[in-house]
Each structure stands twice: as C-alpha cells, then as structure tokens.
Amino acid sequence: MMSTTGRDLIGGARAMLPWLLGVGPFGLLIGVSAAQADIPVGAGWLTGPTIYGGSAQIAAIQMLDAGAAPVAVIITVLVISLRFVLYSAAMAPYWRDTPLWWRLLGGYLLVDPSFVVGIERYQATPDRRRAHAHYLGGAVLLWISWMVAIGLGATVGARVPQSLHLELLVPLFLIGEIVPKLRQTATRRAAVVSAVVALVCLAVPMHLGIAIGIVAGMVAGYSALRTPAKPADAAPSPVSEPEPEPVPALSTRESHR
C-alpha cells in the first residue's frame, strides 16, 4: 500500500502535467536555438541546469551567439530572474523550519510552474510535510521534463540545416505567450517600455541594452500596478421631465357652480 508521502509526490506530479503542455515545446525551442547558435551544443544544453529559467536561457544563448561579454550575459540573466526573489519571499514562511538541504533544493527548483503548483498546496493544507512532498513531486517532474526537452531540441536542431532558421521559433513562441496578456495595463506598459528602451540602447557597450530595457520595463509595469485605476465617469443622469404643477382644489362652493 502506497504511503502518504508517495501519494503526495504523485499528486504534485499530476498537478504539474498541464504545465508540461506548454513547457515541453518551449524547452524544445530553446534546445533548437542552442543548436543553431554559434556556440557549442553542450554549452547551450548546460544553460538548462545552470540557469534553469526559459527567458533567461534564451537571453543567454542569443547574447553568447552575438558575442556579448560574459559580464553583460550574467547581468542580463540576473535581471530577468529577479522575479524569483518574490517567489522565494512567498515560500519563505512555509520553508522556514526546514533543513538547509531542503531550502537549497527547493529554491533551485523554484520557477514559475513549480511556484504555482506549490503555493496552492501550501495554502490549502496545514500539513507542511505533505505540502513539501506535493511541491517536490511537481518540481522534480518539471525539471526532468525541461532537461529532456532541451536535449531533444538540441539534438534535432543540430541535424537541421541552418537555412531553416529554426531559432526564430523562440521569439515567435514568446510573442504568442505575451500577446494574450497585453490586455493587462501593467503587462502592456512593461512590454512597450522595455522594447523601446532596448532599441534606444542598442549602442550601449557589452550588449547591456537588453538588461537596461528589461529593468525599464519592470519599473514601468510596477508603476502601472501601483497606480490606482481611475473611476469610470459617472453616467449622466437622465433628464427628468418637469413634474406638472398641482392643480389647486376647487372649493365646495365653486364645485357646485
């Protein structure tokens, strides 16, 4: 009979399955991009376990392919990964009394999907041990799937003629991810500001224009979140027709005339 921990591990893995529908193709595209870039395929694949973040990996691969300085690549990756600080702060109350090895492992596996799967379980049950197992089951499955997807993409991409430019699929995928979210004011403002600033800063040495654009976009998006929404203008009240003046009542004497 399966133990409670085993059931929680499997439960976390099941909760992660819907995320793999989008994460898998994304990993394949990153692997293809690494294979098509002018860097060793092994180095491109190593961005998976060392950086472990889709957007940061894309930036690192493309900047290395463009010949950017290592300092610029590191700064850009750190800036893109700033959101993980917020994730860690949200998880800190649930991990406070755990051993150091757990905090190191859990923090390493903490990315967008694992955060969502984990935080939902932590908030739903007071049993920390079961929530830890749930988080670990989903996070480990995500990590394994991500590494496999990148490896497959790198293998396939290395055998495809470079004339097909499969690396263009990565920005197209990101565009497909971002466009549906542009209805949100903060996301729309962040995307526009980031793109404009990055274009203006193209001439900045060491390819730091990307990092500057990202920071500018984050500031713009944050300011949009902090700005309270303006209340909708009150609809003008319908013009009421003037009420007819009351007709004075006739006296008894006048009514008999």
Secondary-structure blueprint of this entry?
Blueprint: H1 4-36, H2 41-51, H3 54-65, H4 70-80, H5 83-95, H6 100-108, H7 112-124, H8 128-159, H9 169-178, H10 185-200, H11 209-226, H12 252-255
Helix pairs in contact: 1-2, 1-3, 1-7, 1-8, 2-3, 2-8, 3-4, 4-11, 5-7, 7-8, 10-11
SSE topology string: HHHHHHHHHHHH
Task: Give me the Rg, rounded.
Answer: 28 Å
- Low-confidence runs of at least 5 consecutive residues: 232-241, 249-257
Helix % is over 70%
User: What is the count of helical runs?
Assistant: 12
Largest sheet: none
Kindly name the structural category. Answer: mainly alpha
- Could you give the distance between the termini? 105 Å
Number of strands: 0
Mean pLDDT: 78
| Backbone shape | globular
Report on this model:
By secondary structure, this protein is mainly α. The chain has a domain of 159 residues. It is built from twelve helices and no strands. The protein is globular. The relative contact order is 0.14. The C terminus is likely disordered.
